[in-house]
Amino acid sequence: MRWLGCGFPLVARSRQDGDAAGRQPVGLCLPQAQGKVRIALSIAHEDIARIDEPITLDAVASVLSRDAREVALELAAHARTLGFTARAFGSAAWQWRTGETYLSSESDLDILAAPHGPQALAAWLERLRHLEARTPMRLDGEVEGQGGDAVNWRELAGNATELLVKSSGGARLAPRISMVAAWN
Length: 184
Prior knowledge:
This protein is of the alpha+beta class.
């Protein structure tokens, strides 16, 4: 498979019905020129060569438009002041890692954040709301709690009593109070 021969990445994904037990669910997204098709695979654990952290928002900024780059770098700097490293996934990360074209005028910027504590979480959500008003890309992404569960930042910033929580085991609805407790 040319993809793996080029050293391009696969990403971990949630387990789906039909995935073989004892294998790691992974996926890849083909670039725009190949239809941006998403492909679900599973591989033997012993075939995993390495596991990398998601790319930093600072690094992925290099593949963004000038205006989007400025917002990404500002968010990355703000995350550092709050004590964590903001990371990216989605189209921008695929483009950065492969050099292939994934970003389009409709692309959003997927950000992964893991603030420590309720004050850092509140400051992060407020900065996202503020910056989204002036960025050319829609800001999307997840906020990860101490246990590794993640929630879309807009849901977390909203008022719903239940949140869609994502983890390596899949997605589930959980009471807001239990997810917010992950930052206390």
